[in-house]
Amino acid sequence: QVQLIESGGGLVQAGGSLRLSCAVSGRTFSRYDMGWFRQAPGKEREFVAVIRSSGSIRYNTDAVKGRFTISRDNANDTVYLQLNSLKLEDTAVYYCAQGSTLTGKFGSWGQGTQVTVSS
User: Fold this and answer.
1) Within 13 A of 10's CA, how many CA atoms are on the CB side?
2) Helix (H, G, I), strand (E, B) or coil at 75
3) DSSP characters for 14-56?
4) Which of 13, 36, 58, 112 makes a 20 to 30 Å CA pair with 2?
5) CA nearest neighbour of 115 among 66, 48, 59
6) Strand pairing of 113-118 and 57-59?
7) Which H helix or E strand runs over 61?
8) What is the pLDDT of residue 63?
9) What residues contact residue 22 under an 8 Å CB cut-off, 6+ apart?
10) Distances from the Cα of 115 to the Cαs of 29, 83, 105, 111, in angstroms?
11) Residue 44: pLDDT above 90?
């Protein structure tokens, strides 16, 4: 059974940076698209970024605006999300997910990691 474990969240001041990691086990990592999503208090979960098995990348440009970078390490079955120039509105629980952009389904999710940006 696939397992996704996020780490790297925490409390950071506005303008700071964090690097989130998501370690995946139980399934051939390189075959799947990997996405990051986030959910802020009182809001619906939103898409942040996806990196496909091919390596191609797509961002929620409205939310990210060039501040975040997604990457993957197929040798270590890990996907990363580098968060730079953090803003108060980036405060959320960040989730990684595994699935397919072709079907639009991300069926496997991690437990989430909290990112809190303070002023």
Assistant:
1) 11
2) coil
3) TT--EEEEEEEESS-GGGSEEEEEEE-TTS--EEEEEE-TTS-
4) 58
5) 48
6) unpaired
7) helix 61-64
8) 83
9) 4, 5, 6, 7, 34, 36, 78, 79, 80, 81, 96, 110
10) 25, 10, 25, 13
11) yes
Q: Give the torsion sign (CA, 30, 32, 33, 37).
A: negative
Mean pLDDT, the chain, integer: 95
User: DSSP 3-state assignment of 89?
Assistant: helix
Q: What is the pLDDT of residue 61?
A: 84
Which residues, in sequence order, are bridge partners of residue 94? Answer: 38, 113
User: Is residue 64 within a helix (H) or strand (E), and if so which, with residue range?
Assistant: helix 61-64
User: Using an 8 Å Cβ cutoff, are 10 and 55 in contact?
Assistant: no
Q: How many CB atoms lie within 10 A of CB 105?
A: 11
User: Which amino acid does the sequence have at 29?
Assistant: F
Report the distance separating Cα 114 and Cα 103, nearest Å.
28
The 10s digit of each residue's pLDDT in 59-102 is 998 888 799 999 999 999 999 999 999 999 999 999 999 998 88
